[in-house]
Batch of 3 targets.
Target 1
Amino acid sequence: MAFFRNATSVIDAIETFFNTVDQGVLVFKEGVSNYLHGNQEAFSNNIAMMAKLEADADDLRRDIENKLYAHSLMPQIRGDILRLLEEMDNIIDTAKKNLFQFDVEVPNIPAELNQDFVLLTDMCVSSVSAVIPAARAYFRSPETVKDQIHRVYFYEKEADKLADALKRKAFRQMQGLRLSEKFHLRYFTLHIETVSDTAEKVADLLSIMAIKRSI
Amino acid sequence: MFFLFLTSGLFLGWSLGANDAANIFGTAVGSKMIRFHTAAIIAGIFVIIGATAQGSGTTHTLSQLGSVDAVAGAFAVSLSAGIVIFFMTKYLLPVSTTQAIVGAIIGWNIFTGHTTDLSLLLTIVSSWITSPIIGAIFSAILFILLRMLLKRLQIHIIILDVYIKWALIIVGAFGAYSLGANNIANIIGVFVGSAPDVVIDFGLFSLNGAQVLFLLGGIAIAIGIFTYSRKLMIEVGNGIMALSAEAAIAVVLAQALVLFVFSSTAFSGLLKNIGLPAVPLVPVSSSQVVVGAIMGIGLVKGINEIRFKTIRGIALGWVLTPVFAGLISFLALFFVRNLFNLNVGSELNGTVAGTAISPAVIESLPQTSRHINLIWPGISLMVLLVLSAVVIYSFRQQKRRLVAEKELLEKEKQYNISQHALTNSEIRTVQLENVYLQNEVENKRKELINYALSIIEQKEYFEKISENLRSLINEKGPEVKDEKLKKLEVEVRQRMSFNDKVEEFNIRTERMHKDFMGRLTQLYPVLSANDIKLAVMLRLGISSKEIATLLNISPKSVEINRYRLRKKLGLGKGANLTQFINNI
């Protein structure tokens, strides 16, 4: 049946898209860690990998969009689904942008802050890792979405706290740093934090979408 | 003559198709899951099948209520129902074809003196009340089951969408079948008593007079669907779809089941066989069943807000529609009999309404009837239909092709226009470039002439110097020699004014500030060429000392020139000359 064949191909594309986003944030986490520990070669590999994954995610999103319209699939909720995919795509875009900023701006991060940055990145990546199963759940059992997204909100709040602590540490305790360096650190903290903010946005969207499906 | 009278029934069928198809396929069409034409074809086909195959049960009940045995009477009854529906729809009052036809039949009973079977009337009226309630129960149960099933199966939303699409088509087809089966009695029921005594053989199947009327009624409904239901389908569809696709399936299926239950002789017989009370085979209002079904879904979802206004409106329709239809029917029958002198039905004072036509009679093919063989005409018709379909399809394809070609031509035209515009602008650019190049050539020519003249002048000058020096060498008197040397020195110094360079500079500045010079001359015609030259130099930010060198005059003279320029420009004491010039 052509209808089912088309539907299955879209499902496969969505699954691959989610996997790509998941891999993207993992590479981001690894990239930040490699940068902090001075593993330049590994960091360069992470950047190349990130660029590829981001491009793949973009292609997949466009492919899904085309298929949904071409085969007139889900005319009522198509808009919601495409918005969800766009927001998910924003996550990998943000992660890529952040990693590239590390590469371009080469921020001077004191070794005392390495652990804080690793923790912050880890928390942000956890929020994304929590939102992906929730997004998958929307497609099969929307009633479980709510049970899954509370983890995203938790990780996002934790990331906020860590970022706040990091900024305080940089500005109040690191007297040896110049003001410009402190500003630079603050920007990078904000950049990393954006990843969990984007995940939170996806969680908000998913929550509304799940309610809409239950009405 | 019979077919002329039948038109009122067919009109009723057309309006039923236009209004009620939205309850069946509204969801699928309104949500753009299937195209209107596909929905209309499926609904049309299944309405005709339902009407022809299963329309006898409800017809029998209506004929029990009042067996209209004269075609003119049937016409008046059907027309009265049509008029009531038209006006009540116009004034947005809830109306049902069933209630209108029942009222009109009672009007006929009263006019012809037949007694109405009150217990049967009670059964019919109670079905109007019970059908939305049953619809609510069915839809609630179906919705709960569907929800449980979906929860358990956890089907991917995209696969589910495909299932829903097909489910809506299948359920819609079933709904159309049930609508035809249940509501055909409203349209054709009153004419069945006067149906022509014929059997038409279509080869694969044969139809008696009553069934032919059902077929015609079904076709009228199908035409109503095709011609007039699109807008309503989209409107109602969007309204129902606001629930969710699963709920919409439950609503449409519940409606189809209710209509089926109230029209199926087989189901009624089955219930009777297992010792349960038989369901009365009564035509019910599909719209009211849908309202009940939607309320059933609302109750399952825990929405306590029951629209009492809607219920009150429906209840009002239960009373108003039959009363109006009865009155109009009575009046119509009076006019038809007294004005046109036509028989509107047998008059039997005080007896129970005429002979009811049983479903078995409707479905039988009596041997005594006139047999009409339509095998070959039927085959010809089918061939004709297929050919027409092929012709229409190829015509459409050609039309599409032509439209595409037209679009292509339009695009090519647009492309040519833009190309033309581009070429024109290119030509203009080239022309401007030519003018610029001509000016360049002219300037170069001037420069060359100046250069040549300068060479000649310099040659002549140096020849003169050489001659003077030679005469100096030959000079004997030292005093005269000194005097001549001084004179020569002054001459050489005067010559050091770098005339050619200054001239070149002037040409260049003139070229660069052509627009500015134009504006300045236009605004201040009193300015001399030297004033303009000075203004240009000031605009370039050249200091007075530098200007003095360039113009080969003393700085004092530059100051005087500046003063004159200020005066001519009308500047006050505090005004900045350079700033003023820059602002021009």
Target 2
Amino acid sequence: MTMITIMAILFLGGIAAWLSDRWHQDLPRWVSLLSCLLAGVVLTPMLFVQPEQMLLLDGVSSTWLEYVNYQWIPRFGIAFIFAMDGLGLLMVALTIFLGFVAVISSWDEITFRTGFFQFNLMWTLAGVVGVFISLDLFLFFFFWEIMLIPMYLLIAIWGHENKSYASMKFFLFTQASGMLLLVAILALVLANAEETGIYTFNYFMLLGHALDSDLAYLLMWGFFLAFVVKLPGFPFHPWLPDAHTQAPTAASVLLAGILLKTGAYGLIRFTVPLFPEAAVRIADFAMLLGVLGILYGALLAFAQADFKRLVAYSSVSHMGFVLLGIYAWTELSIQGAVMQMVAHGLSTAALFMIAGALQHRLHTRDMTAMGGLWQAMPRMGAITMFFIIASLGMPGLGNFVGEFLVLLGAFQVNKLMTIAATLGLVAGAVYALIAMQRVFQGEPGDLLNAKRQDLPDFGMKELLAMIPLMLGLLWLGVYPQPVFDLVDPVLASLYELTTNQTNWVGSDP
Amino acid sequence: MTTGLTGTDLLALSPFITLTGVILVLMMAIAFARHLGLTCLIAALGLLVTLANILWVAIFVDPQLVTPLIIVDPYALLFSGLIVIASFFICLLAYNYHQQRGGHQEEFTLLLLLATLGGVTLAHSAHFGSFILGLELLGISLYAMISYPTQGLLSLEAALKYLILSGVSSAFILFGIAFLFATTGTLSFAEMADANINPTAVQGGVQGGVQGSVQGSESLRLYMLIGGSMILAGVGFKLSLVPFHMWTPDVYEGAPAPTTAFLATVSKGGIFAVLLRFFVSVDGYQYQTILDGLFWVALLSIFLGNLLAVMQSNIKRLLAYSSIAHLGYLMVAFLAAAEIGGRQLAIEASLVFLIAYFTTTVGAFGVVCIMSRKLAARDTDQLPDYEGLFWNRPLLAAFFAAMLLSLAGIPLTLGFIGKFYIFAVAVDSELWALLVAVIIGSAIGLFYYLRVIFTMTKRSSVTEGIAIPKAGGWSLVAVTLILIGLGVYPAPVIEWVSAIARTIS
């Protein structure tokens, strides 16, 4: 029931926020803040479920914490299946936490139609949570598409100067690739029906069915492309810099923090387990895409003058590690990929909030006009320094754990690519530190001199969002074991499932 | 078949009788007292009674052929129900549309009901006689509805265009029917099917001079092919499929918004009902040439419809091109029925897709109706006219957005279920080229639907002061509830439609 309650809180909270606009401008924010908190409270007990309390499915102990199944469209064997395991739980927790951060980041920035804004925010969260817990492929696709609409509206209505172009590009990229996913899902279901005689979209029933290997290979591409566009992997990333740059802060936080993760999640949960053999066939290619993404993202991040674009390209680079880790498919590298997903979610959300705060105060994102801002806003400077360091992979913070594990795992599989990917860490340090230098250090720019009087430092509200993010990264960096405990059983079972069917390169010790 | 009508025949025909009765009552009412509200009330109530009657027949009367002309079966009743529901909502919207225009607006409702009767006849026809009857009843009412004197020259031009092209297409259809008749000696679909399967059996029935030229089944097939192609060309006009689509944008733009809604739904739905029934019963799918032709028609409709829609800045023209594309999607399901194995699913897909298309189209044009209540030279159909609608009339904009998202096939709406079916049959029947076209077409489609939504979210005061009338407003509420309700929980409709598809495949 936890899952349904959370979905209900988010969907209804969104509607309540919209309606509350009628009474007072400020009310919607409180409504959605409370919805996020409430959803968090409802979720918390799940985090303490012990392994022996996990569900039995078909009489066999499983890694699932919760499972519901209702009939929906019996004609096609479509059911309303929500299920949550450690991986899903981690992703849902991240979603709700970043939702909370996003609401705070929109607090002062959004003054136009706050009710509808919060509605879209909540529905995006609800859609994403739906993606993380749907284990019926039709239902999964349903949410996969639903989360796009409110996100599109967030960018199209509250975005910056070039919002029309950016929101359209975002929608077209993700939707067009989504249609490939739909075709692949349908073909999978029909191929399965031809063999077994029943239509079903049930993940558990489709899993582990040996398809004709050429067909599986084709279908795998449908899944792969949809998820890699969302990730985004090189060369499917062009939507990302525009969407991130033009989006309002809260939308950027959600986009970078959780929407990108749905792509990675899809690869781990669906693409590889459903088509393990086909995944082996493209593993090298996918890893190459990952490495190219790491290097290309870093290179372009270095060349940006727009602070938000820089963070956006750094996302391309960081998500390259995730792709590399997933397709190396060793236990270490998948663990690393999951850790990187969480850590990147936290650090990038914070960087986008900082970018939003800068734009709110300076009305520009152009780094060449900034400089010396530390003098005026020391708290903001220090916090930015923290996240910049986290982002470049300093040991002791979450991102390091993720990237290091990915590299460690991938090294067993392909040394050359791993070495190339490591260069990304160096490049990361370069662009991150240069950004820090341009914005907060150096000679005070004209902008600072002109506006010195009205540059408020981070206040209570911002700190309320920033401090949990910092603590989170620190915790992930120093003591990541709880996260591994949560996801390890899931990853191990997926790993076992896939390597039983194939000879993954990575299965060699 | 006995010549006289029996009691059960009359019961089976009762929806026709009810609808005709309503038309007569309406005619008398207008003759005695000109009152727009009263006229529309009678018509709307009459349509509801007809709908109840259709439901009653569907539940209590066994499927049967009433005279060789009319067939009463679940398939026909489904289409009749759809047509009557669409007419009901259009009637209410037309009431609001005409309210502030003055002049003699009552006859519009009368024409609407006559055209509805034509549509219902089409849905029930099992014979070329009733087909032509329905087609002309529908078409002739439409000429008057398109040119109805609510606005300026634009609608006259549209009506003239429709008159000429529709006349030409009717001529094509008649000529095609003549070929089929000459070959098979019958106008009934069922008898034609027998003749088609067993060509030698009809030699006796073949008439006069043609008999000499018919030499064996090869030349018989040729006549059937020519006749079938001519009928398809004529039907292609009415369904506005490429390359017979030229009239669509101009007529959509020129006609009053309620007429456009009617033209886009009832007219196309009724004709598609006959086309599908005819094709399935005579197994037109055995002619590879026709299938090849339809393949290109579908492909071009999808591409041209979507590409040209991108360039429009007029909502009605945009919806016109988008409807060309949607009929193209529908033809994919139509073609998927070619193989016996996939036929049932394909028919089911066309029916579900049409239900979605009806709902969405009535809703979308309904918004245009409500936006265009002022007497003006043209409807409020320019894209900039909709700026800021989201903020000034949030509910109206939300309805419109829901319709557009449904056209784009986004989940939570019925349009998604329709699109899902099209994908499913295309994969099932392995129509890969068409599937790729549908994917590309949908991606292009997103672009222009989103542009309209984006326009509505602009911060502007253009749309201030638009009032939402009661009748039209509640119609839109109902249509939107159907759209979203069935989009979220389509199981009942799917079960029902798949049972119907089983009966005719």
Target 3
Amino acid sequence: MLLASSILIFNEKIGFSVQSVLEYYQGNEDKFITAKSTSGILKIILPHIFVFGLFIMVILHFKVFTKSRNSQVFHFIIYGAFILGLLELFTPLLIIQGFVFFAYVKIAVFFLFEFLMLYVFWILFKSIVYD
Amino acid sequence: MRPIVSGLLIFTLLYLAVDILVKSNSFGLFNSTIKLTLFGDEEQFIEPLSQASFLEFIHTEIFFIMMILLTLSAVYARVSHKKSFSLWIINAVLLNSLVSLIALAFSYYSSPLLINLYVVTFFFWHILAFYMATCSLWSLNFAKSI
């Protein structure tokens, strides 16, 4: 539900096209969209830094109870989740500096993070049901 | 460890109480006030809640409920004496909170009738969580043995 609501919010407030991401952060005079400031973005990401860390830790610590706890994939997922979380949080700061490339990164990272968490949920549910 | 967990439980009790107070002053606690917040009222010139605001609200609610009930269930399962009963309580609190969130989302997007279900499950999970926190505090500090 948290992941589903985050997709809906992203779609409602920002949009999934590169153009809409750029407009949301860099503004658009024609559409009367004001550009986001660094302090405005920091206000949004401040609670999310704590929340992302806690959420990833809480979800991934359940993997210790599964059979795949010592696998190489598990380590890859841990590092992957935290790196994707960091990119997800801090790419807006780079977008407002004019780096258009990071609008692509923002969208890609958002979906990668969602899929990674869904994959972890699937492993956890599978472990609960079959192990 | 006892003072730390007791502190956590006191904060949980405070959260549950303040959550009800905040909701009664902003979002609404009962059918009529929640309906007014979600859908507005033309006669009273009250604007309906925008989709972006609703999504932000439910997004934060999901996270907080998830974290509160996860930590509370972990403590309650550890300190409770009646294991089978505690399992029922934990399942009930999680199911009620889940149904309350789903009912709220569906009442906004499809049928306002589900607000009643939201109200009932909202109070149920708060009462159960309050009971779990109080029982855990009692077991930690006053019971003869854990």
